[in-house]
Specification:
- This protein has 346 residues and is of the alpha/beta class.
- 40% of the residues lie in helices and 15% in strands.
- The chain is built from 14 helices and twelve strands.
- Strand 11, helix 11 and strand 12 form a beta-alpha-beta unit.
- The protein starts with a helix and ends with a helix.
Length: 346
C-alpha cells in the first residue's frame, strides 16, 4: 500500500486500499484518504470491495482468500484487470471451485518466489506467461544499524559473554508451523557444543502452549538447557538488536513462501543459513546472499553451522557490510517500487 501511494503521483493513478481486519490506517504507510478498514465486518467488506472494484481498471487481491471478490468483479466487468498476489502455501496444492476459477480468470499472478511459481504451474496448471515473480521487500522503516556491535543490554539480559557464539531463529513457535526447522537446530546443538562449547541458541517469537512444551521437552532431553534461550515475543522495533547480537541466523524451513526474516537478518549484516526446498532460495538470491542446505540432512546442517562459526565459508557471506548493502540493493523498498511500477505499466 505504501508503494502504491508513493507511485500514485508519478504514474497518475488513483487508488483505494480496503482491509478486512484493520480498523484504522497507519499514517507511516498510507494516508487515511486512500484507506478504509472494516474491522472484521465481512459482508460489508465484500459488498463495498465489489462496488469499488467495478469502478476500477485494476483490482489487486492481496490473498487468494479474497478470490470471491475478484471473481464477481471479473464476471460483472470483464475489462477489469485482476492481479492476484500468491504468498506460498495457499497455492501449493491442487485448488478447486472459486479459488481455481480466480487463478484462471486473473490477468496476472504475482508469486513471491520461483518456488511458488513452479507450484502454481505444476499443481494448478496455471500458464507460466501470466505468473510474475514478485519478491517481498524489507519494511521501509526497518533501518538497521550501521555499526555492527553486539548490544550490551541484551548480553546482560541473557547472560551472554563477549566470546559466545550466538545462533538465532526468529519465527512463530506454532504447532501448525513445524516446518520452520528450529527443532532440528536444537537436535544438532549437542554436536555443535561438543566442538564449540560457547554456543547459545536464541529462539525468538511467540508460540502456542503445545509447541512451546514440545520444544522445552526436546531441550531437556538433549541436555542443553543452558545453551537455549527462548525469548518469547519481541517487539518489531527491537529485532534489530537481536540480529546484531547473533553470529548466524538459521532457519532450515521446508514451507516458507519467501522469508522476510532472512532479509531483515541480512540487512543487519548477519550471516544466514536457510533450506533449499522452498521460497527461502529466492530470499537468499539462489545462494548469493547466504548458504542454502538440505533441511532434511542433519549432518549437513551441523557441518555448515560449524563452518560458519569457524569462518570456513565464502568470506562475502560473513562480511556484515557486504551482506547489508547487497540485500538492500536486491530487495530494498526502492527496488520493490521499481518492480511494482513495471507491473502496473505492463
Amino acid at each position: 500500500m505504501k508503494a502504491l501511494q508513493d507511485l500514485s503521483e508519478s504514474l497518475s493513478i488513483e487508488f483505494k486500499a480496503f482491509s478486512l481486519r484493520d480498523e484504522n490506517n497507519d499514517n507511516k504507510y498510507i494516508n487515511s484518504q486512500f484507506f478504509k478498514g472494516f474491522k472484521y465486518h465481512k459482508t460489508r467488506f465484500i459488498i463495498e470491495s465489489i462496488i469499488e472494484g467495478l469502478r476500477s481498471d485494476i483490482i489487486i487481491l492481496g490473498h487468494l482468500n479474497l478470490a470471491v471478490i475478484g471473481l464477481i468483479v471479473k464476471i460483472l466487468n470483464n475489462k477489469a484487470k485482476i492481479i492476484l498476489i500468491s504468498h506460498g502455501v495457499e497455492v501449493w496444492s491442487r485448488l478447486y471451485g472459486i479459488k481455481k476459477r480466480v487463478l484462471n480468470k486473473a490477468s496476472m499472478i504475482l508469486a513471491v518466489s520461483n518456488f511458488t511459481k513452479k507450484k502454481l504451474i505444476n499443481e494448478n496448471r496455471v500458464r507460466s506467461d501470466k505468473i510474475y515473480v514478485f519478491p517481498n521487500t524489507i519494511d521501509p522503516f526497518f533501518v538497521p544499524a550501521e555499526i555492527y556491535i553486539k548490544p550490551h543490554h541484551l548480553m546482560q539480559k541473557y547472560k551472554i559473554n563477549q566470546n559466545d557464539k550466538i545462533l538465532l531463529t526468529v519465527c512463530r513457535i506454532d504447532s501448525t508451523e513445524k516446518y520452520k526447522g528450529y527443532d532440528k537446530i536444537i537436535e544438532i546443538l549437542p554436536s555443535i557444543i561438543h566442538i564449540i562449547p560457547n554456543v547459545k541458541y536464541l529462539l525468538v517469537g511467540k508460540g502456542d502452549e503445545t509447541e512451546i512444551k514440545r520444544i522445552e521437552a526436546l531441550v531437556e532431553r538433549t541436555k542443553i538447557k543452558n545453551n537455549v534461550i527462548m525469548t518469547g515475543y519481541v517487539a518489531e522495533e527491537d529485532l534489530i538488536n537481536y540480529y546484531l547480537l547473533s553470529d548466524l541466523f538459521i532457519m532450515p524451513s521446508k514451507g516458507e513462501g519467501f522469508g522476510i526474516v532472512f532479509l531483515e537478518a541480512l540487512s543487519c549484516g548477519t550471516t544466514v543459513i536457510a533450506g533449499n526446498k522452498d521460497g527461502s532460495v529466492d530470499a537468499l538470491s539462489g545462494g548469493k546472499l547466504g548458504i542454502l542446505i538440505d533441511p532434511d540432512n542433519i549432518a549437513k546442517i551441523t557441518q555448515t553451522v560449524l563452518d560458519v562459526l569457524n569462518k570456513n565459508v565464502d568470506k562475502k557471506l560473513i562480511d556484515r557490510q557486504y551482506l547489508s548493502q547487497k540485500v538492500i540493493d536486491t530487495y530494498g523498498f526502492d527496488r520493490f517500487k521499481e518492480r511494482l511500477k513495471t507491473i502496473l505499466t505492463m
